[in-house]
From TrEMBL:
Lineage: Archaea, Methanobacteriati, Methanobacteriota, Stenosarchaea group, Methanomicrobia
Membrane spanning stretches: none
Name the UniProt record assigns to this protein: Ribose-phosphate pyrophosphokinase
Residues that bind ATP: D34, D35, E36, R89, Q90
Keyword DNA repair appears in the UniProt entry: no
Length: 286
């Protein structure tokens, strides 16, 4: 088996390879003078089972993934791991004339035996891939990390109902209490959070979401919790997009720490999803 990481998931690919007790395969990526991307797999992969790991946060990441797939055309099998799938939030027509971008991007992946995503925005997106696709869950890894922090009477809070089930499942697994805010989105990065009574005075609170993009939802939630005399307030997410000034907004709101996985490789990505990916790969070897 060959583990090949793309430019956006180099560290994660190395961690998955370490979990499998193999060395990661080196791939070379650069750009031509006209800014077109170039990719070369540095080891022979003909007849091999290859696993490509590449998050697709940008358009360039998508193009690189397509090049990786094409470079492995002679492999015995190609499995693609997309830890963070860009365009996944555009999963339906919200306004007349819009493209379903999640569907459009999924259809570009051809010549692939299977695709694995990680906590994709909506699971019906998996139906758009031309091959079998499965979504993996990183939330238990975050749950374990939170448990190890030894917090003071911790309370898990979902910033909106969209992730309420995930947060309640995590809380149940940890035998912790949980609650949920009511959120109204006013624009792409502006939200209104309705205050509600919670038993938070002096307690450490963990705000948990699947993704933090601009940080607007989390920052408003943190401010409410701090105003109502919570103890330390942490934010945790699976996908740390952290676009623009999200980190500054969160720090300004009074957050104690930002915790995230390495589906996107940021300084906050201290929780690795490699064990979840490796566990699925080990099933294939049995």
């Amino acid at each position: 088996m060959k583990i090949i990481g793309g430019p956006s998931s180099q560290t994660l690919a190395c961690r998955v390879a370490a979990e499998m007790n193999i060395l990661p395969t080196v791939s070379e990526f650069t750009r031509f003078p006209d800014d077109e991307q170039y990719l070369k797999i540095s080891e022979p992969i003909e007849g091999e089972d290859v696993v490509l790991i590449q998050s697709t946060a940008t358009d360039s990441d998508w193009i690189m993934l397509l090049q990786m797939i094409d470079a492995c055309a002679s492999a015995k099998s190609i499995r693609v791991v997309i830890p963070y799938m860009g365009y996944a939030r555009q999963d339906q027509v919200f306004k007349s004339g819009e493209a379903v971008s999640a569907r459009a991007m999924a259809k570009t992946l051809t010549g692939v035996d299977s695709v694995w995503t990680m906590n994709i925005h909506k699971k019906h997106t998996l139906n758009h891939f031309a091959c079998p696709a499965m979504d993996l869950d990183a939330s238990p890894l975050i749950a374990k990390y939170i448990l190890d922090l030894k917090l003071n009477r911790p309370l898990l809070v979902a910033p909106d109902k969209g992730v309420e089930k995930m947060v309640r499942d995590m809380a149940s697994g940890l035998d912790l209490e949980c609650d949920v805010f009511d959120k109204t989105r006013l624009s792409g990065d502006t939200v209104s959070i309705q205050e509600k009574k919670m038993d938070i005075v002096g307690r450490d609170v963990i705000l948990m979401d699947d993704m933090i993009a601009t940080g607007g939802t989390m920052a408003e939630s943190v401010k409410i919790l701090r105003t109502n005399h919570a103890g330390n307030v942490y934010v945790a997410c699976i996908h740390p997009v952290l676009a623009r000034n999200a980190v500054l907004r969160l720090a300004n709101s009074g957050v104690k720490d930002i915790m995230a996985t390495d589906t996107l490789e940021k300084i906050q990505s201290r929780i690795s999803v490699a064990p979840v990916i490796a566990a699925e790969l080990k099933k294939l070897k049995k």
